[in-house]
Amino acid sequence: MSVGATWGKILHVDLTTSKIWTENPPDELYLKLVGGRALEAYLLLRDMPVGADPLGPDNLLIFAPGVFQGTNLPGAGRHSVGGKSPLTGAIGSAEAGGWWGHEFKRSGWDALVVHGQAKAPVYLWIHNDKVEIRPAGHLWGHEVAEVENAIRDELKESKLRVAQCGIAGENLVLVANVINDYNRAAGRNGLGAVMGSKKLKAVAVRGAKNVLPTDRKTTTALAKWLGDNYKTLAAWAHDKGTPGGLTGLNASSALPTRNFQDPDFPDAESIGWETLHTSVLIGRDTCQACPIECKQVVSYEGQDYPNSPAFKTQVKGEVTLNKVYGGPEYETLGAFGSSCGVNDIVAVSKANEWTAAWGLDPISTGMTIAYVMECVERGLLTAEMTGGFLPKWGSSKDLLEAVDMLAHRRGFGDKMALGSKRLAAWIGKGAEQYLVEVKGQELPMHEPRLKAALGVGYATAPVGGDHMMNIHDTGYSAPGRGLDRVNTVYKVGPLPPNDLSEQKMNIFYHEVNWQHFQDCAICCMFYPYDYNQLASALSAMTGHEYTAQDILDVGERAQQLCRLFNNREGFTEKDDRMPKRVMQAFETGPLAGIEITDEAFHNARQTWYGLMGWTPEGAPTQERLAKLGLTELLETKA
Amino acid sequence: MVTVEAGGSLRTRIPPQTTLEDVQTVGDALQRLHLPPDMALIIMVNGRLAHWTTRLNEGDAIQLLPTIGGG
Asked: Of A410, A464, A467, B7, which residue is the least packed, with the fewest Cβ within 10 Å?
């Protein structure tokens, strides 16, 4: 094999026929796509029939690490999962942290492609070259930790890693995640339901093969640089992690509150870092080969916290928290907390625990419940329609009952399990005007009225509203790592966060390509690497030279392939839109009067289409595909 | 004279409050501080969203709030 840090082998498993086979892709595929999202989009374009039912046997479920996985590059403790999303009908592509991707790559495979549907529940056991389809009827219906522990016991292999669909995925909940390593999630696009539809309960992996970079000296030097600098350059993630910014966002009207309606959540302190770490937080957790330890771990047995002045709970004595499922991150605190008007760190943490234990997406689950709360308040949902369930803003018990109903599709939960957009269509009566989603995917916890290009990113992300394959404008409003990075290829100074100029859209173009690149080679986005550092890492891994521009081209290839897939599945530029609510100005607070006009949004979107080489209708052109070297790859048949 | 107030977790990285003389813009003021390079910042002046080139008047209060981009 002449591409270092890869095996030249993709594993295919058809659960309808139980056929297992190996594909040996050409070097060209690795060098141009690198792995992860670009590989997923390529395989979906090649192997999935046009218009396939996302929950039918023709959809693919793809587990794809990248070139970086299996090595000890800090930040590479991740993998990607892809398929056609049942939530949006567009491409689904999601990354998760943990150890599963590292272990899978070390089993000697570059990707796993699952075809077909099993008649009865099964799980896969991949132990180096040995691949088995095993019965999983005894695991079906059990919580995540029970399933992972049972598989370890059954296979007598304590060091294996498990990715699984959870109870929500079994129930075909459209906001179900694929969970790995007990509490990490390939989140957002409903891929847990794809896994459930295939009756694939889990994929257990154990690998003992060393993935070796071609040039270890360079990768070792980069790991040393990271070790020497992460306490400064990733201090925010190391010191507090994602919850650290919550109260600051609220002070600037940027903490989504009551379904993005309000410019202020008066009880933000009660779900912020200070309260978290003076109450239920018991420790921090991390991913493979990562010193940063950004993850939260919580526990609760009903105690009081006299040193936590803003701590509040409505569920004392009614719930406990299990540390095996980790703890709430910023997105979860926002989605179950401020978005639902809930100021209860215990209830929010419990809702978070259930999303891991049952395999739910916290953002879409929280935002669907917030939408239900608003529709109840507006009289659009009545007791007759919901079987008597009428959740209210701020009620911890209503929040927890809603999560339980949704995961198990019990009563009105059967409707909530479809996500807010389908729910709005069922309600009718103009209920869609209160939706906050793009392509059917609920918005995450970042405010476009503060970060305008992020709003364009919500509109144009191939998976629907997403904050990771996106930019955060506040990262370019003062000198720092964001501007230093982009200045490698595009010279620009600080710009206002609500700016949508051509300069801002150039930052957006390069930085979104960078984010997609990191989902192909696969590296954590919380790391302080720059373009040149990861270009040098990819060169050292593969033994082929990449420049900063070359790795941005990898990210663009991922986006071009995703766009080809989405357009093939019927999406057009009309689907690249922003929810009206987050374009309209607040009347009070720091962002009062700041709006995003239809014209400003349209111009920014068209500027980006132009930078991508797309037609005004958002279609990739043969000229750009040829320039990126994709033409021949796209002509290849399976 | 203008004041710069650090909010949230930024308070452990730069002084919670700083007083500065002879500054014309937000950028002038912030260049005198050692801003942490890893943090995305929300900049406000007198409680309203501002930016690097916002001109300052005597007595203005700059508020800096840290933010994050994921999670």
From this structure: A410
* Res B37: pLDDT: 81
Q: What is the pLDDT of residue A638?
A: 60
Nearest by CB to A496, from B8, B10, B51: name it: B51
* Strand partners of residue A300: A321
pLDDT at residue A522, rounded to an integer: 98
Q: Are A289 and B45 in contact (CB under 8 A)?
A: no
pLDDT in tens, A556-576: 999 999 999 999 999 999 999
B4 touches chain A (CB under 8 A): no
Say whether B67 and A249 touch across the interface (CB within 8 A): yes
Mean pLDDT of chain A: 97
Locate the DSSP E strands across chain B: 2-6, 17-20, 40-45, 48-49, 61-67
In chain A, which residue's Cα lies nearest the Cα of B70? A468
- The rounded distance, in Å, linking the Cα atoms of B24 and A262 is 34
For residue B7, the model assigns a pLDDT of 87
CA distance A176 to A365: 9
| A616 shares its domain with A485 | yes
B71 pLDDT more than 60:
no
Q: What is the CATH number of the domain that holds A432?
A: 1.10.569.10
Contacts of A496 in chain B (CB under 8 A): 49, 51-52
Pick the residue from chain A with its C-alpha nearest to B12.
Answer: A239
| Among A414, A442, A470, residue at a domain's last position | A442
The reported pTM is 0.98
In this complex, which of A248, A331, A467 lies closest to B65 when CB atoms are compared? A248
- DSSP letter, residue B65: E
* Contact call for A526 and B40, based on CB within 8 A: no
Amino acid at A213: P
Q: What distance in Å separates the CA atoms of residue A596 and residue A452, rounded to the nearest whole number? A: 7
B43 reaches A (C-beta below 8 A): yes
Mean pLDDT of A90-98: 98
Residue A461 and residue A436 share a domain? no
Judge whether B61 is closer than 8 Å to chain A, CB to CB.
Answer: no
Question: Can you tell me the mean pLDDT for A394-415?
Answer: 98
Measured distance CA(A144)–CA(A79) in Å, rounded: 19
Both structure tokens of A204? 């257990």
Q: Does B17 touch chain A (CB under 8 A)?
A: no
CA–CA separation, A232 and A552 (whole Å): 26
pLDDT for the residue B11: 86
A600 and A462, same domain (yes or no): yes
Q: Is residue A438 part of a domain?
A: yes
Mutate to test the interface with A, among B38, B46, B51, B54 (most CBs of A within 10 A): B38
Query: Is A481–B71 a contact, with Cβ atoms under 8 angstroms apart?
Result: no
Boundary-marking domain end, from A387, A408, A442? A442
**What is the C-alpha separation between B13 and A438, in angstroms, rounded?**
37
Same domain, A554 and A616: yes
Residue B48 and residue A254: Cβ atoms within 8 Å? no
Euclidean distance between CA atoms A330 and A243, whole angstroms: 5
Q: In Å, how far is A594's CA from the nearest CA of chain B?
A: 9
Determine whether domain B2-67 maps to CATH 3.10.20.30.
yes
In terms of residue numbers, what domain contains A624? 452-635
Query: Per-residue pLDDT for B70 more than 70?
Result: no
CB contact under 8 A, A480 and B40: yes
| Residue A1 in this model has a pLDDT that exceeds 80 | no
Q: How many domains does chain A have?
A: 3
Would an 8 Å CB–CB cutoff place B36 in contact with chain A? yes
Residues A30-67: tens digit of each pLDDT: 999 999 999 999 999 999 999 999 999 999 999 999 99
The answer to whether B2 contacts chain A (CB < 8 Å) is no
